[in-house]
């Protein structure tokens, strides 16, 4: 880090290039909705999207009683998300809470789950999944799903997931997953999946569940010491994979395909997971105290070893991956808590699969700057078109929320064609800057640094930050933009909101530079004249090879 005097001088130079105040905006953003006029409803606790509809859970909504919950259904009409219907339970016994805490959506079906509904006839509480069906007059109550003997301690309905004609409901207290299907007249239990390795003394099967048209994945906890003997050591993460029709007589049933068993030395506890077409992303919490996390990517067609571990661009991994969603086959949306001087306001990051592996592409941060927002507590995606990011907003003792909808390419992304260039042979790294066309004609500037900033640092730009440190390379890229080895590192975005910059490494460069890594990021400013910072990219890497 440079001395304060030099840091101030560098910032003054930057402001000379970017005159005026700074602000942060994210292109392509629309606010889906929040629960109008309500507080402490936990709007956005869960959400799901299918086709042109989005459902959002508000488990503490009070329309049907104290913390009885509600599900808000939105429909996309003429390119805008509009409220279609608010669903509240109409038959709750006194004292029922969180009746719409988890939601799932599939075609004409909507599922809302509660883990705690009083059952006077059974002298206890149980979990329930309420099923709604859409007809010409709207969404109508259709059926309630529950299992005898599954009291509140079973955790029945703590997690639900729907795909095509299947609904999976977890009951982690029972070490069981329940699978339902529609038989033409009602939803019926088709199969119960239990711990496939009970001798391992696992626990909490169904901490999270994810499914696609072929496979079902679920995370579990196992207490195993370093010698593989069950003991009192920290909990380990295990992911079980079930495949539809695998070694079963009924092609609709799921058979146990295998497990992903994380090394005991990692001491990982389970977090979120998502699955799509043989690709599996799994979050593991390394340190429960600090919520430090890792994100592991698997290609199940290649085996049970992770082919890549992802970290956030600035290295902040607190709750990284707390919510995950694949958007198409080559884009992964990751939600997680970040760090800033304002507190853990959170962010979401997209990673895109490239020939160089999965690379961070775009970053989403909240517009609020008062520290009262927890952004990206839940994420979802609709195909490869729209990304949905939910936030919690703390208003004193109350918690509400909001959901933002973004284009799949929402904020500027910076991608490179090569990651390393030889000092002896020389070469060029091309940086491709892509933005939404709303930013056509805006000014862009590519800057660099010799290292990434610490977890809580970076160059603050109001509600966002430029993920670089101010050092000699930063000053060089700033002072020599579009000169020397830098080509088109400052300019205007074209009609598509795109631009290309290049950094040349001359042949015969000093061999003592081998091993140095250079990091670059771009910021986008409003049309020439105002200089307002609209957004920043995540950093790219240029390695100097011998």
TrEMBL record:
Keywords carried by this UniProt record: Signal
Pfam families hit by this protein: FG-GAP_2
Residues spanning the signal sequence: 1-25
InterPro entries xref list: FG-GAP, Integrin_alpha_N
Protein name: Kelch motif protein
Natural source organism: Engelhardtia mirabilis
